Amino acid sequence: MQLSCIYFYLYFCENIQMVKTLNLAYAYENGEELKFPNIEVSPGKHLLVIGPSGVGKTTLLYLLAGLLPPLRGIISVAGTELNSLTRKEMDKFRGNYIGLVFQQYYFIKSLNVSDNLRLRQSFPKNTNDTQRRHELTERLGLKDYLDEKVATLSQGQQQRLSIALGLIHRPKIILADEPTSNLDDVNCVKVIDLLKEEAEICKSSLLIITHDLRVMSHFQNQVML
Amino acid sequence: MKLSYLAYRNMVSKPLNLLLSLLLLLLSVSLVTFVLQLSKQLGGQLNKNIAPFDMVVGAKGSPLQLVLSSVLHVDAPTGNIKLKEVATLQKHPFIQTAIPVSYGDNYKGYRILGTEVGYLDQYNAQLVDGKLYKKPFEVVAGSTVAQKLGLKVGDNFISSHGLASSSNEAHEEHPFLIKGILKSTGTVVDQLLITPLESIWEAHDHGEDEHHEEDDDRTEEAEVLKEHDVEKEITSLLIKFKSPLGMVQLPRFINENTSMQAALPGFEVQRLIGLLGSGVQTINGIALVILLVSGLSIFISLLKTIRERRQELALLRIYGLRTGQLLWLALLEGGFLAIIGFLSGWLVGRLGIWGLSHYTQNSYGYALQVPGPDMVELLLLALTLAIALMATLFASCSIFKLNVAKTLSDA
């Protein structure tokens, strides 16, 4: 462990990467062990992690978001080693630096579209950046639905809101889990373009995890699981 | 956005759950505040009204009835006593004041009380308009009566026989004249029309004559009554002692040696409040059980919604909220519920007092006040909050065990 730490520092001091993992492994509750290849994402660059269902793609995403503890190895996000953070610090770090876009759409059902976005802007530090909300919803075609309940939105609108919630707080890194798996070809391209565009505007890195081969042609950097 | 706003939105997003918990809270809080307020005001009102007098002497019967009728003016009298019989009492060395009262008529449901001017002094009743009465059939009106019936100095009215407004038998030959209006005293005086004793005697003398003429079969009876009238009867004698010895000796003496009875208002009212007290305690007990049930209802509904909202809670963790903040969110929701439930319950309790006040005002002439919150009610608020927050805390245990990754993957 000590050796690996020293190695880690030597390895990282040269160039700070947005995301970097080293010898990452995770153990499921049943003891099954999962090893991941080392990944690296430079600031402003994107990475596609591709692999068939059941190889632990989502697990990798949760590890990178600090939602699951690794068995071994090191995860660094935006120059911070996640292992070194306490639970409380991790919550704050995640809230500030990481944006998550899920395959399923999760919203606060009791709030309308605008309030869902406002809520995301309020934690961990309260920004309530109206202009940002305005611009983002305008670009994502949600501007006319701000006062709607999320349940009344169409599938496509929910997808776009889910993306908006992933990046309204200008995260350093956007982690997207199967963002295109439920979509037809046209919408698949639309969503990928949208994610890339928004990542560009926020100067964020984008890490997409998918089994959807249609996405492959859109990204230069790819890792196979 | 504040967490309190989210808590509020969460709370109103389940209106049926909210309604059930709120209704239970409302029911218990309104019951407790209503009953406490009622017993407090009743006790206060009673004590204030009996304060000027230590003893009542009247016809034999229930001592409580004697006090209720002669001092508090809510019940029917036990009967009449002869003025001659109490004359010696009035000069007794232990007695400071002894005021004879006589009644039996009303004007639109307000009692006409025949008594001496000294009665007014006992309640510190002062004139706001006009003069005190001097001659029979002159009247000073209590403030409530004057206000409700729109009586002014110089007005005339005709009394009806009996104590209820429904009585049809009127004493038309003897119209009363309002000579003065009294200031509000907050006592029973406000509800009375006060006149010299002679007014009552003369009104009824005439009444008996009429009776006599109309009904020959009852001639004998009427004659007997007339003899009584000649002897001058009063309903009761209200007494204030000069020395505490009077309290010890006189009631016993009167009850054992005369055909009259002596009742002690303080004792009787204490007994009455004691009787009410056990009722109050029973109702409070029931209300407390309802409060606990409402706590249970909050617990169950929150437990259900927290389970349903597991993914939302996981999402909030993704947004960077700590476990403590999620707990705070739940506590805010429970707290809001308790506060809204308490406030609406309190309002309903007060509305109840207000409504009852109209009823008591019309049937007994006693109005109740609708005061602001008091100390006991603040304690009740604390208790309500404590129960709601405990229920929330128990329901929120699963927040500590929330596995964000698992919750989001399971969906």
TrEMBL record, chain A:
Q: Annotated Gene Ontology MF terms?
A: ATP binding; ATP hydrolysis activity; transmembrane transporter activity
Family annotation (InterPro entries):
AAA+_ATPase, ABC_transporter-like_ATP-bd, ABC_transporter-like_CS, ABC_transpr_LolD-like, P-loop_NTPase
Q: Which UniProt keywords apply?
A: ATP-binding, Nucleotide-binding
Is Nucleotide-binding a UniProt keyword of this protein? yes
Asked whether the UniProt record includes Nucleotide-binding among its keywords, one would answer: yes
Name of the protein in its database record: ATP-binding cassette domain-containing protein
Listed GO CC annotations: plasma membrane
Q: Which domain of life is it from?
A: Bacteria
Residues in domain ABC transporter? 19-225
From TrEMBL, chain B:
Q: Which residues cross the membrane?
A: 285-306, 326-348, 378-400
The membrane topology term of the UniProt record is:
Multi-pass membrane protein
| Family matches, as PANTHER family | ABC TRANSPORTER PERMEASE, ABC TRANSPORTER, MEMBRANE PROTEIN
Q: This protein is called what?
A: FtsX-like permease family protein
This protein's UniProt keywords: Cell membrane, Membrane, Transmembrane, Transmembrane helix
Query: What range(s) does the MacB-like periplasmic core domain occupy?
Result: 19-201
Q: Can you give the residue ranges of the ABC3 transporter permease C-terminal domain?
A: 286-403
A cellular component term from Gene Ontology for this protein is: plasma membrane
Say if the entry is tagged with keyword Transmembrane: yes
Which compartments does it reside in?
Answer: Cell membrane
> Which residues, by range, are in coiled-coil regions?
none
Q: Which InterPro entries match?
A: ABC-4/HrtB_transporter (IPR051125), ABC3_permease_C (IPR003838), MacB_PCD (IPR025857)
